[in-house]
User: Fold these one by one.
Assistant:
Number 1:
Amino acid sequence: MESAKQLLNYISKHVNLTEKEELVLLSKVNHRKYLKGQYLVQQGDVCKYTSFVISGCTKMFYMDNEGQEHIAMFSIKDWWSSDLGSFITQTPADYNIQCIENTEVFQFPHHTQEELFKEIPKLERFFRIILEKALVASQKRIIRNFSLTAKERYLNFKNLYPTIEQRVPQYMIASYLGITKEFLSKIKSKLILEQ
């Protein structure tokens, strides 16, 4: 299966699994396809899986009391999508994760994770590396939000994630940047004039 190969190739960038370990891993993960608009997890539910994106695109967002969406993250091919706080502690999720496109994932169930770590100790190292990268990215994002202007945040977003802008609506990018879509339009117009 091509999608399984993609997952194993990704893992092999961090740890080397034997053929037997690969088979054990694939027997304990779920392969799922979601339609555009479907949720991987909803705010208030417990996040039972951490998902590796094979194809498609998801958004992770918090919905405030006024019904306003605050997008924290997008996930595309070879990225992870999960409410980590909920997944790790098995408590209600703070975030929703919704598919922006038809999305294919491999899901690592929380209830099999400890078994996997015992059977394939290398996976514990693999997930530590992934979590460290996620933490670093999150901390860098917090600093950018505090220290950069909206224009600088937008340019940084374009630079870091060049393929996402063509795939998601402008209002979602504006939400991710913490600005209105009208303000994002003004920034983009000014940038065109500056060229």
Note: Residues 153 and 193 are 18 Å apart (CA to CA).
Number 2:
Amino acid sequence: MAGTVEQKLNALGITLDEPNPPSANYVGFVRTGNLLFVSGQVCRTSDGKLIAKGKLGSGVTLEQGMAAARGCAINLLAQVRMALGDLDKVTRVVRLGGFVNSMPDFLEGPKVLNGASDLMVAAFGDKGRHARTTVGVAALPGDAAVEVEGVFEVA
């Protein structure tokens, strides 16, 4: 039976699939003590398609970027579930780091990352409020529009 957090996700129409395997020489997550570090997740669906491809400010809209960041957050949570077996073991979302594939003059990166942050708060309530960094970058793997990494405190 799904835990409380997964039930909230299901109510939002979100089901967590098996995470995509790493595409290079790294692992999807590392746990040390009560911290779980999850590698950057691009905005791929479970069938491997990108939610948004290209640059914000040149072909990818703010709304598409926010949807891509939400997709990254879903992929983060799939990794967390794989690591812990149950999302209810998360005691705090500590930090998200976001990377936005964007034109140099695109200044709305923080709004893009709200797609990921809003999902964490919806899933975990106050425990989902976190520190965050958003960085505009020249390119991401596969020309993904967004990539998000995360740090979680776990029981």
Note: The longest strand covers residues 90-101.
Number 3:
Amino acid sequence: MNSNTRFPDSGEHDLPRELVDLARAIAALPDEQQTELEGVYMRVVDSVKRRRRILALVQEALAQLRLDIKYLMFDLEVTRKERDELKERLE
């Protein structure tokens, strides 16, 4: 069978090079062995894609957390300055 129909090559940016190579190696096997390995291969591909999505979500959450911390630090600094100014006025 053709490797493009059973094992789609979605590009190096989507799958690690090793998985693309593995798909080509599986496609070169006899049909009986291909069908045995195809399900396992697709589960591995799904797992890799899921892990990449999770990593992207974690990276996005960390970026948002860093931004939130910067805003909080700014607010804290401004609040302290306002407190100090009010203390001076009261004295």
Note: The CA atoms of residues 36 and 87 lie 77 Å apart.
Number 4:
Amino acid sequence: MVHGLCYLCLMDRIEKIKEFLETNPNDNFLCHALALEYIKAGDDVSARELFEKILAASPDYVGSYYHLAKLLEKMEEKKLAIEWYEKGMVEAKKAGDNHSYNELLGAYEDLVY
């Protein structure tokens, strides 16, 4: 959890992103950015809900797999984290995104082995 002035800045960023989402509610970039801000604010449940919403609607939005799985690790949901890493690797391969694939693979291996 952040404190003082930094907390106010964080809340301001969250409110600004929410305002943008009012006109573009299905913008994956904005939803992803908001989820990351929620993590910084310590609101893991809201972050998880957003990442899951993104990936349910757009399974090809590869960047959210890593962050969702990392969040699930933090929430001590190892089995579910592994599943999301695996799904992310499949999507990264489909997209030809080797950087994301390797990032997901590394995190997956760190968790599994």
Note: The chain has a mean pLDDT of 94.
